Amino acid sequence: MSENKRIGFVGLGNMGYHMASNLAKAGHPLAIYDIRKEVVDSFPGEDVLRLSSPKEVADQTEIVLVSLPTPQVVKSVVLDENGLIYGSAIRVYIDLSTSGRTVSKEVGKALAESGIKTLDSPVSGGVPGAEKATLSIMVAGEKEIFDQCKHILDSIGNKDKVLHVGEEIGQAQALKVINNLLSSSALAITSEAMVLGVKAGLDPNVMIDVLNVSSGRNSATEDKFKKSIINRKFDYGFQTALAYKDIKLCLDLAADLEVPMFLGNNMEHFWKFAMTQGAGDKDYTTIIKYFEEWAGVEVKEQ
Ligand code: NAD
């Protein structure tokens, strides 16, 4: 698998668009597909093959990466009529989506039966990480295939954070949904706490500065509050519906393994409540607005 062979990419959304752009910048010619034809048509580069189905991508390329919204979409892009599995050239499938352990294993098994290797490779670091190619990428699958594809993953992530986590497909998905339960919980509990602080008369910027040099710091204090919440931009780039999907996938994993999740279940309930309020298509940093409404304050520049 030479470094300059054309690479396939399916799913040019908030994350995928930047990841595909970084692959192109690193010198990999691309073959791309997304159901949104306008995004495919406007993707820059003279050398890009703009195709009309996952199968067409898999007919043209040995290695295909996907970044898709839900496990159901991942399954359909791989296994449905005109799916990747029917491509004549594909040898390695790399799933960068958060698609959960169950679907990852199911899809991996079907592909293996067709002689196609899978790397279960979810990413972390959000849209800023995708844009700057500083993502962390947790990868499960055969170590030999990981080693062969690492140079590709290194062009979309930080090479020191592209990590092999196990041989079994689905192990990286398990780790990723655990990570996202933690990061969405951090965002929710930090929102609750920041609202309390503002109600107590504190300046939110001062709070964040102090928390970030104290033991309460977390991914929400270090990243999301100043970037997207205190300035009221709510533009972090991750939809509430996707955050909820990931928490649910984590709780499904716990149910499969019969592990009690007292706190995780509360988180799932809280994010489900947000979904019932129509928050699904909003940025997940807007979660703070419920706490603000209940307390009658806003966490904003003072
Ligand atoms: P998104 O909804 O912005 O992008 C998904 C893309 O897939 C869209 O361009 C959409 O048109 C395309 N798509 C949908 N159905 C399709 C189909 N049948 N065939 C081809 N293309 C199809 O989502 P995103 O935020 O880019 O996230 C992608 C994945 O990465 C998700 O699994 C998400 O959980 C995960 N993720 C997201 C973030 C983030 O901060 N946004 C961070 C880490 C991981």
From TrEMBL:
Originating species: Planococcus salinus
Keywords from the named record: NAD, Oxidoreductase
Record's protein name: NAD(P)-dependent oxidoreductase
Domain of life: Bacteria
3-hydroxyisobutyrate dehydrogenase-like NAD-binding domain residues: 170-290
GO annotation (BP), single: organic acid catabolic process
Gene Ontology molecular function: NAD binding; NADP binding; oxidoreductase activity, acting on the CH-OH group of donors, NAD or NADP as acceptor
Family per record: Belongs to the HIBADH-related family.
Domain spans labelled 6-phosphogluconate dehydrogenase NADP-binding: 6-164
Lineage: Bacteria, Bacillati, Bacillota, Bacilli, Bacillales
Active site as annotated: K176
